[in-house]
Amino acid sequence: MIEIKEPRFFYGWYIVLAGFLGNVAAGGIQSFTFGVIYPAMSDALGWGRGAVSIGLALRPLGAAFMGPIVGPLIDKFGAKWLMFFSAIIGGIATIAVAEVTQIWQFYVVYGIAGALTFTGVGDLVATAVIPKWFIRKRGRALGLATMGNPAAGMVLAPMLAFVVIEFGWQVGWWFLGLLILFLGTPASLLMRRQPEDFGLQPDGDVDSLEQSDGQNENRKATPVEVQWTARESVQTLTFWLLLLAFTVGLTAVGGVVLHEYAFLTERGLSSPVAAAVLSTHAVGAALARIIWGGLADRFPIRYVMSAIFFFSACGLAILLLSSSVPFAFLFAVVYGLSVGGTGVVQPTIWANYFGRGFIGTIRGITMPAQLVSVAAGPVMAGVLYDVTGGYTLPYQIFLATLVIGGIIMIFTRQPEKS
Fold first, then answer.
1. pLDDT reading at 3 higher than 50
2. Separation of first and last alpha carbons in the chain
């Protein structure tokens, strides 16, 4: 009998590396770093915080429009060339933000850069491709790949703060644009559609891991994953409960981090200390990807996601009780270690519940509602700041949305296919 040996190194981990680098590149113009650069830009150009926050909202709104188109394309053709051209165009558009003088110019240019990097370089690409390469280790693989986003905040936020203070906000945008070009384009060349295209199986296993008809045929240490089409998925109650929980709960995610730096400085913390708190938050969020990704592989995932929402609410409660330096860092640790888990558990639960065959299409369908919610958070906080002169009210609203999202998540049982 001929013994079949598993390959020494599974190519899926190169996909994880590409996802990590793409998320670092895309994370360079998302909430962590945008929160550092936009106060200086706003003050220099005389724009209100709410008006600038609308620009950040255009990133997920543009991605929401692109998601239903891009998702099926990833399922059918893969993400290599999508990621390559998105990195080039997105990087150039990011550099162009340095030259804007009117608010409408900022909306157009940053909206293009943000939408392309979000869908074509970072979040959607990683969370649509990686689940195709992993089943048993899906949570851990997505955890490693999505660490790129908080890693961008952890490393780039202090660097960007230095650049902005020493050289101005325009140079800051050049710094971020070049980062997208030099990280996103090489990462795209590692991308492949799915393991079956190369005679491989998910997780590097030799035998087939799936059955498409949902029958109970189990093999030792081999998971059985039922495949749902997008049409079948939207006909389940679970689909809509998941969508509702994330639409409500994720309102806080973008809003809190965008205004966190300004929140802390306006409550008396110095700029270096506020940047250090933001970096601590980012470190916690990066570690959270590994922690919660591992938990998602071992425990009922709906309870894992619910716990993330509840612990995130506790972190915000700490910040609202006091913004002194010790409480600020305690908030950063608790909130970062919890909210960071959303980036890995959210895409994992969609793939676990509905299978990997049409995950790009399913994620593309869900993206508009979720990203509209993510976009609404920063805008709402900016507008309420302009109206009330502070961030207390919007942060209280964010706390409430996290609690509501956690409660809904408890009831999202895995669907059963008849």
1. no
2. 40
Please give the C-alpha separations between residue 396 and each of 186, 236, 250, in angstroms, as whole numbers: 42, 33, 14
Nearest residue to 356 (alpha-carbon basis) of 202, 205, 123, 131: 131
Q: Determine the Cα–Cα distance for residues 212 and 227; give it in Å rounded to an integer.
A: 5
d(Cα 320, Cα 334) in Å, to the nearest integer? 13
Residues 287, 71: Cα–Cα separation, whole Å: 28
Closest residue by Cα to residue 191 from 353, 360, 36, 379: 360
| 258/269 Cα distance (integer angstroms) | 16
109, with CB counted inside 10 A (0-12, 13-18, 19+), is buried
User: What's the half-sphere exposure (Cβ side, CA atoms, 13 Å) at 108?
Assistant: 8
Cα 88 to chain centroid distance, Å, stands at 20
Cα 207 to Cα 218: distance, rounded to the nearest angstrom: 12
Determine the Cα–Cα distance for residues 270 and 213; give it in Å rounded to an integer.
Answer: 59
Is the separation of the CB atoms in 90 and 120 below 8 Å? yes
Token digits of residue 115: 């939408």
Whole-number average pLDDT of the chain? 82
Strand, coil or helix: 169:
helix
Helices in 46-122 by DSSP H: which ranges? 49-77, 80-96, 103-116
For the segment 127-155, what is each residue's pLDDT rounded down to a tens digit?
A: 888 888 888 888 888 888 888 877 777 77
Rounded to whole angstroms, the Cα distance separating 356 from 143 reads: 17
